[in-house]
Design brief:
Number of domains: 3
CATH superfamily of the largest domain: P-loop containing nucleotide triphosphate hydrolases
CATH topology of the largest domain: Rossmann fold
Helix content: 25-40%
Structural class: alpha+beta
Largest sheet: 11 strands, mixed
Number of strands: 22
Number of helices: 19
Strand content: 15-25%
Strand order of the largest sheet: 11-10-22-21-20-12-19-18-13-17-14
Shape: elongated
């Protein structure tokens, strides 16, 4: 081992592994030394793998050191066959391929050596030059030691434990996708990133550190990982998401239904009724200028009573004129021709159905006609001291899951839109979209249309207003490509499905599409990290977390489960009652950690 007075940029013969046989721009091919029996070298007590994807090699060119990351290892005969060269069938030679990405030079300052590293290559190596493994002490300069806005999310594979950093502003501000098959450690990777964000203030000794993280949690998993969280749940009534927050498109989607064609006449009925009731509430009791109110303004309104109405909207001969129901009925033609009233009746029947659905109490609870809940609605995301807010959507029926997530995403965007620039600077938000393929699927299903539009807008414009987006999915091929392509950083864990790998390949830059070849062989927690949040494409191992820091797994242990006695009649009766009343045991579901 060289001491600090010797030049660290000198070739280390023990780390020499082969000779360059081809240089094609930034892509090089080198034949491994025939004396290499095992694909590893030991130097300074550290084991360095040879030919592992993502490992770093270096080439010396005078005082300049050129760096490349390994993209492929194969037999020389395969390479020769591809090039149309006569193949020596008896040869056991191997070649390693690498992509050059940067260069550096060791500089001595105040009796200490430092590597000046720069991305990009201006000097290219030549055939017959040796390639070397890069020592651990040098890798920390290449991978970056982490600046003020960097968080440590794991370590680089095959680097002897060199930390893997992500630039916080690039990771969040320019959106990130976390992708991986079931069991690859995807939710654990998200938890590791969020824990690193939460600890960032302590790591940097900031006097104040108040990140605002909102998680759309469709399976009620994340409460276990963040015990100090603020839980917003439809089951408990802690999530304020009243019907009057819905804009025109969302209201039409809710009342017309997920499969029925939104007839122009029904849409116009809803539009006119919405504008009418919003203007009335704006005048009294809110005392706002009703002329400035639009059909999408979040003004509360009374629903009215559609229960018991006959097919003409009449009950005991009296036309109902209260609230939204009254605004709909006021548009009816005066004649009693049934065909002229059918569009009105369809809207009211759907409203009646929604109001009677116990699963939708969190949204359809009637407004009292007096209080303005806007401060409380905005405050649930900004007011409390909890840094992580988990929106538990596990109790939301699938047919309105898209509408609910749409309202949340649009509400967050609207809040940021109407903040002043200083307010945006002081309160940026990270929205984590777990199971993103549920809300922004790459298909035109009507129940997801509003969610797709809301999250699509967040992806395109959110960064300008202080909203970062983290899309998490086990099926990247089912996530809308427009939204996924807006992410500038990707953390891709093991992906076993061919269609998903091809989809990942399609969204990565052309120079990185070769990464997809290794995705099916990654270990649990191992990932490919590419994009603007990392200095260079990397193969990393996500930080290990203790069980109480991980999202709760829903995997059932059959071996343990079948060692218990059968369920008693009392327990079965309780289960039946929960089923009938559509109520879960909230304490058990959240581990007693809800707030």
């Amino acid at each position: 081992m060289k001491n600090k007075h010797q030049h660290p940029g000198e070739p280390i013969e023990n780390l020499a592994i082969g000779t360059i046989v081809e240089v094609d721009g930034t892509h090089i091919v080198a034949e491994l030394d025939s004396q290499i029996a095992e694909l590893s070298r030991v130097y300074g007590g550290v084991v360095y793998p040879i030919g592992q994807f993502g490992s770093i090699i270096r080439v010396h060119y005078g005082h300049t050191i050129i760096y490349g990351y390994v993209s492929r290892l194969r037999m020389k005969s395969e390479y020769q066959k591809e090039k149309g060269i006569v193949v020596d069938a008896s040869s056991t030679a191997r070649v390693v391929e690498a992509d050059l990405f940067g260069e550096g030079e060791w500089i001595k300052k105040e009796d200490q050596w430092h590597l000046k590293f720069d991305r990009g290559v201006s000097t290219f190596p030549l055939p017959q030059q040796k390639i070397y493994l890069t020592p651990k002490g040098e890798l920390k300069y290449v991978f970056g030691e982490g600046g003020e806005a960097a968080i440590e999310i794991g370590e680089h594979v095959g680097s002897g434990g060199t930390p893997a950093y992500a630039n916080l502003n690039e990771l969040i501000g320019k959106h990130t996708a976390v992708l991986g098959s079931t069991g690859a450690g995807k939710s654990g990777a998200v938890a590791a990133i969020l824990h690193a964000i939460l600890k960032h203030g302590e790591t940097r000794n900031y006097k104040t550190w108040n990140p605002r993280i909102i998680i759309l949690d469709p399976h009620n998993e994340y409460g276990n990982a963040f015990p100090g969280n603020k839980r917003l749940s439809t089951d408990e009534g802690s999530l304020l998401l009243p019907y009057w927050l819905l804009n025109l498109d969302e209201t039409i989607a809710l009342l017309v239904g997920k499969t029925e064609y939104a007839a122009t006449s029904q849409s116009n009925i809803i539009k006119n009724a919405l504008l009418d009731v919003r203007e009335k509430t704006a005048k009294d009791p809110l005392k706002l200028n009703s002329s400035e109110i639009t059909v999408d303004s979040p003004i509360p309104y009374i629903l009215g009573d559609p229960l018991g109405l006959d097919e003409f909207g009449m009950k005991e001969g009296i036309l109902y004129t209260v609230g939204f129901v009254g605004a709909i009925n006021s548009q009816r033609p005066p004649n009693k021709d049934k065909s002229k009233h059918e569009d009105f009746n369809k809207v009211l029947r759907k409203l009646q159905s929604l109001m009677r659905d116990a699963r939708l109490r969190f949204m359809m609870q009637p407004w009292n006609g007096k209080s303005d809940e806007m401060a409380d609605i905005i405050g649930q995301f900004f007011k409390s001291q909890e840094q992580v807010r988990i929106i538990d959507l596990s109790g939301v029926p699938n047919e309105i899951a898209g509408t609910a997530s749409s309202v949340i995403a649009r509400m967050l965007f609207s809040i940021k839109l109407w903040q002043s620039n200083e307010e945006r600077q002081n309160s940026p938000i990270l929205l984590v979209c777990e199971e993103a393929h549920r809300y922004v699927p790459d298909r035109g299903e009507a129940q997801y249309a509003s969610a797709q539009e809301a999250i699509r807008r967040l992806a395109k414009e959110g960064r300008k207003y202080g909203i970062g987006l983290m899309l998490v999915s086990q099926r990247p091929s089912e996530v809308e490509a427009t939204v996924l392509s807006q992410c500038n950083s990707w953390i891709v864990l093991r992906v076993t499905n061919d269609a998903d790998r091809e989809h990942v390949k399609s969204i990565l830059p052309d120079s990185l599409t070769g990464l997809t070849k290794v995705l099916s062989g990654l270990r649990r927690r191992e990932a490919i990290f590419v994009g603007q949040a990392t200095l260079l494409p990397s193969r990393i191992m996500i930080k290990y977390l203790e069980a109480n820091q991980l999202p709760r797994s829903h995997d059932i242990d059959f071996d343990k489960g079948w060692q218990n006695a059968p369920l008693t009649d009392k327990i079965l009766t309780e289960i039946g009652n929960r089923w009938r009343l559509q109520q879960r045991n909230i304490t058990q579901e959240t581990g007693g950690q809800s707030k």
